[in-house]
């Protein structure tokens, strides 16, 4: 995929990093969905997650179209499930349904959001490596389309719940295929030494399949599932995973004389957080994966071609949102080598974006509220929390005249920022503001101090 041209001298907005309606006006102010950031800050305050609804919907539709088209002759099409763990609220769940995607949830809480939004149970997948009896019962009572089982204990547990409810649960077995994704250790999920799934190499996957078949009165085995990691920029790992998964899928079918109609290749498709990142488009991903799957199925000869599904989350939600902050202090620090670094402290931090502290994630930020003719200076954008690791952007260049009251926008914060947000130092979490066609509205309200205190049990 070729790199985009460098940004114009008057515009530092690299196209891959920002939602499709983001631009600057002639005053240098960031505009999104037809609304400028000063107006957003005045009405809703900062920090705030600002979500471009048009961009989110466009990315969802692009995945649906790309995979349906690429797999049309391979497996009769493909299903796309939005991974709700990236970011989920009732409004987003409704958008996902309206754009024709399924929804992947992994806790009872995420399932409750889907239920509140009226999301069809048949188009839901329930994940999780330690689902409780309560969560399994909640899922079966809502008639979710598939449950991805992750342990032998869970298989027995699910069968028991299904028996009690008098239903037959539809399941996929999560298989650990041994592919080492090129990503951070904490978000690589297909190597052997980790908590997810059943190892293909060690025989655990075979045992899991046999356990599900043992409970065939209460469990219906639909097929297999794999997820190799997150923030992956090419399809090489997916192609190896597909080869191993399809081979195992075929062996199961032949050994047990059954037809397994589904194969889920998971998600983990990467996005651009910095100008150096070069992710594949949905069409490129779909075409590459379709070719790999077709090659493997063709090599097996006359076999049932399972319907393929994938689970993008970050690739849809991530670029749709930026976080808007107000600068509070600017501090210039002399380093050991005699150079200086400017510390820019904003009114948020690791409570609204813990990813840099958690696994060294990189982000890009810009001055959002005005033009500046000042030269740039080496800067580090930090939060307001009592941790030295409370860093949002470790190394960047910002105008040397940056001052308290300026607004900064950090790009591509739509995935795993609000989802991983917290209340460290008793800091209320920011709102999520949706913008579309010149209108802004709250879809997740800002927490208040009263919200924080509401859970305290004061026995004095």
Oligomer: single chain
Q: How many domain units? A: 2
Radius of gyration: 23 Å
- DSSP helical segment count: 13
The H-level CATH homologous superfamily of the largest domain, spelled out, is Alanine racemase
- Share in helix: 25-40%
| Mean pLDDT over the residues | 93
Main beta sheet strand tally, sense and closure: 9 strands, mixed
Uncertain segments:
1-10, 183-191
Structural category is alpha/beta
Q: Any idea of the CATH class of the largest domain?
A: Alpha Beta
Shape from CA axes? globular
**CATH topology category name of the largest domain:** TIM Barrel
Distance between the termini: 64 Å
CATH architecture of the largest domain, by name, is Alpha-Beta Barrel
Can you put this structure into words, describing what you see?
The model is unreliable at about 1-10 and about 185-190 (pLDDT under 50). Helix content is about 30%, strand content about 25%. Strand 8 (about 145-150), helix 7 and strand 9 (about 170-175) form a beta-alpha-beta unit. It starts with about 20 loop residues before the first strand and ends in a 6-residue tail after the last helix. The longest helix is centred in the middle third of the chain and has 21 residues, at about 235-255. The radius of gyration is 23 Å and the shape is globular. By secondary structure, it is of the alpha/beta class. It has two domains: about 15-50 and about 320-455, Lyase, Ornithine Decarboxylase, Chain A, domain 1; about 125-310, TIM Barrel. It is built from 13 helices and 21 strands. Strands 4, 14, 15, 16, 17, 18, 19, 20 and 21 form a nine-stranded mixed β-sheet that branches. An eight-stranded parallel β-barrel has the order 5-6-7-8-9-11-12-13, surrounded by six helices. It has helices at about 35-45, 55-70, 70-75, 90-100, 110-115, 135-140, 150-165, 205-215, 235-255, 280-300, 315, 355-360, 450-455, and strands spanning about 25, 30, 35, 50, 80-85, 100-105, 125, 145-150, 170-175, 200, 220-225, 260-265, 305-310, 320-335, 340-345, 365, 375-380, 390-400, 405-410, 430-435, 440-445.
């Amino acid at each position: 995929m070729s790199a985009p041209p460098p940004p114009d001298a008057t515009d530092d907005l690299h196209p891959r990093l920002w939602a499709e309606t983001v631009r600057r006006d002639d005053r240098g102010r960031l505009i999104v969905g037809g609304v400028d950031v000063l107006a957003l800050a005045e009405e809703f305050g900062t920090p705030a997650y600002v979500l471009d609804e048009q961009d989110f919907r466009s990315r969802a539709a692009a995945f649906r179209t790309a995979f349906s088209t690429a797999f049309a002759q391979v497996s009769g099409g493909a299903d796309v499930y939005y991974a709700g763990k990236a970011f989920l609220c009732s409004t987003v769940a409704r958008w996902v349904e309206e754009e024709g995607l399924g929804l992947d949830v992994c806790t009872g809480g995420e399932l409750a959001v889907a239920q509140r939004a009226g999301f069809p149970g048949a188009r839901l997948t329930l994940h999780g490596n330690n689902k409780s009896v309560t969560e399994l019962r909640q899922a079966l009572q809502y008639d979710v389309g598939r449950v991805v089982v992750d342990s032998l204990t869970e298989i027995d547990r699910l069968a028991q719940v299904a028996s009690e409810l008098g239903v037959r649960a539809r399941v996929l077995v999560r298989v650990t295929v041994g592919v080492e994704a090129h990503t951070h250790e904490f978000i690589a999920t297909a190597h052997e030494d980790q908590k997810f799934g059943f190892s293909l190499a060690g025989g655990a996957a075979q045992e899991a399949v046999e356990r599900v078949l043992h409970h065939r009165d209460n469990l219906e085995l639909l097929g297999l599932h794999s997820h190799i990691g997150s923030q992956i920029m090419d399809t090489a790992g997916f192609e190896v995973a597909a080869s191993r998964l399809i081979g195992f899928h075929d062996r199961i079918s032949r050994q047990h004389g059954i037809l397994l109609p589904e194969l889920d290749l998971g998600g983990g498709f990467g996005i651009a957080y910095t100008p150096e990142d070069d992710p594949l488009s949905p069409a490129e991903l779909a075409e590459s994966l379709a070719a790999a799957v077709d090659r493997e199925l063709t090599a097996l000869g006359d076999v049932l071609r399972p319907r393929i599904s994938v689970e993008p989350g970050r690739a849809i939600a991530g670029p749709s949102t930026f976080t808007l902050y107000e600068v509070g202090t600017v501090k210039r620090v002399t380093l050991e080598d005699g150079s200086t670094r400017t510390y820019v402290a904003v009114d948020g931090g690791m409570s609204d974006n813990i990813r840099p502290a958690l696994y060294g994630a990189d982000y890009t930020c810009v001055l959002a509220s005005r033009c500046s003719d000042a030269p740039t200076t080496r800067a580090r954008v930090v939060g307001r929390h009592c941790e030295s690791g409370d860093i949002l952007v470790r190394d960047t260049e910002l105008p040397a005249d940056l001052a308290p009251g300026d607004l900064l926008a950090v790009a591509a914060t739509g995935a795993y920022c609000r989802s991983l947000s917290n209340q460290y130092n008793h800091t209320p979490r920011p709102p999520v503001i949706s913008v579309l066609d010149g209108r802004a509205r709250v879809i997740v309200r800002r927490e208040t101090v009263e919200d924080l205190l509401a859970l305290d049990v004061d026995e004095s």
